[in-house]
Amino acid sequence: MVLVAGSANLDFVVRAAHIPAPGETVMGHSVQSFAGGKGANQAVASARAGGVRTEMVLALGRDSHADFLKTSLRSAGVGLHLHESAKQTTGTAFICVADNAENAITVAPGANNDLQVQHLPSLAGFSHLLMQLETPLPTVTACAAAAKAAGLTVVLNAAPAYPLAPALLALVDILIVNEGELRSLAPGAGSVAQAMQALPCAAVVVTLGAQGSAARFGEQWFFQPGFAIQALDTTGAGDTFCGMLVAQLSQGMPPAQALQRANAAAALACTAMGAQASIPTQAAVAAFLQSLGPEDLAAVTRLRDACHLPPHE
Ligand code: RIB
What we know:
By secondary structure, the chain is an alpha/beta fold. The protein has ten helices and 13 strands. The chain has a single domain (2-19, 30-307), classed as 3-Layer(aba) Sandwich (UDP-N-acetylmuramoyl-L-alanine:D-glutamate ligase). Helix content is 33%, strand content 25%. The strands form two sheets. It has a nine-stranded mixed β-sheet, with helices on both faces. Strands 3-2-6-7 form a four-stranded mixed β-sheet.
């Protein structure tokens, strides 16, 4: 079983020609609201991956936004361990999605800031704890310590980027980051591969946007090129990757295959608007992969070279 501890937000999404620069006003085309939040998105991705029970510990306010988020999670099949904040409103995110599918996100965490380690359920029966950094760092650290002590695999998606104490990194078995987050955790490391090697976690997975992803599991390296899709909205693609990856690993799938499915799921998530609304099911991911030709080994080599693995690897 997978346990996700993290954030849930109501996303207000404005679509516009481009993301405003500081001080600029941009007239949008449309506004919509979607269920979001990195934690909740990852829980939905894990549940839609199928084959493993997914539960989530989260904090929401006592408001109508909370009802909307609970419905989205429950209808995806996520079991909830809910803390209702008496003082804070449900987390919200304000997202501008540009016509080229890129986004800019501002989060008002609200009730997410009330999540604490004592809200964790019994950890018996769970194999993996998946967390992000939209809830307080002391909570993330204490939850990681509790999970580690109970024998779970601790997975941290270190997003958004924060400086992390060595004590927290030491508790993390699998670290998932994008390139910017990787650079902030391993400043001064030359290549992507060197930065991945500089981190103390047993496994480090780096998402590289449309390029794909790279991973180090112990001494083994994996490169998964991205899939060509027509991107509409990249919001939640990284979360889809994390949830799908952890769901597959928790079922014993080898890293190379899990990485391929996670990449495919993330690519599909970019083809529709919204975070949770765009997360594909396992069946959709399998159909997408079947529709493709054999793996392009030249693309794997290109990605491997782009990461600049040191010669001794
Ligand atoms: O990663 C995407 C998510 O970031 C959005 O759903 C938004 O809520 C923010 O948490």
